[in-house]
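Example record

The entry below shows one chain as it appears in the dataset: sequence first, then structure tokens.
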Amino acid sequence: MDASTDNTSMLPSDVSTSLASNPLPTPQSAVTQPNIVFNNAFSAATVDPQNVPSAVTMQVSASSGASSSVPAHTKALVDFMRQLHLQQYTPEMIEQGYDDLNFMSTLSAESLQGVAALVKMLPGHAAKFVAAMTQQVTTSVPSASASGASASSSSSSASADSYVVCVVDRSGSMSSMGTEVKNGFNAFLAEQQKLPGNCMATIVKFDNKVEIVHHGVQLSDIPPATDRTFEPRGMTALYDGIGDAIQMVKEKILTLVSKPSRVMVMVLTDGEENSSRRHSHAEVMKTIRDCESKLKWTFTFIGANQDAIATGTKIGFSAQNCLTYTADSTHQRATWSSISANVCRQRGGGTSRKPVFQVMQAYKCGHA
């Protein structure tokens, strides 16, 4: 791009004046900025918004020439611009060094208007971009009464009042519960889908491997579990299940235009850790405590046939948010019902400081 080209002609005169007196800041990544190569070149006039970034393959090459994966902050920018339906400007933003969403979120409105002018955004697009970056707008979802459809959308661009995370043990020892994990989960899902409000969800299952069942989707769009969803097998990589789930949710939230006001993480297991490879006990404990203290997430540990307080507190869960139950059909259903009641309270703006313990006291350790 010709640095001498006047790119402010598309903005109102007051914005152009502001740019003259407020030069663009230098991106933090300018010194070590890698070269971003787009295999499929395209222009704003020809891009199909539905096929970006799938129509664009990004390769990052360091100055040494070695290929590496796209940096997380660049991927976050790509996702952010796609949510705003402004992805046609992403290549030029990266080309100009504005590839770090976290850095850009610290810029003033005038500086952001300058970035918009630099990549030649249309005036309306520039206004939307600046407003979203300064968190003055959220992407709303039409109500059922207005559209005749579901009040929630599967689009990840929708704002999220709440975010529910379920980490479910499907190791071989869970076979003693039969189909009750599936039935309990489906009952929980049905109750949550009746609630008003916007809620995203991530569902993860683990044995000695961690698998994503659903990630970063509207809870209202999740179908019921089948017999195969949580089919028991393998060992118990508890730390990997928790650590992977937290990491992927944090990365997902980073890409959302509107951040959830509350994040609730629930871990259901019947055994102790025995096969994790990526996350350690110390790492998981620190991560949980950081998410609670800094991000205000809430965590609930539900342990079958064990001392859940001893197990849960050992890896960072608060004792008041640990629940022990007997792994049979009666207590499995009651457990999921109590989990749902706890989540309902939090989604409604309540606290988790009166946890499932109080609801489940009669069922603790299998005593009715």
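Notes for this example: Residues 13-133 form one domain. The chain has a mean pLDDT of 74.
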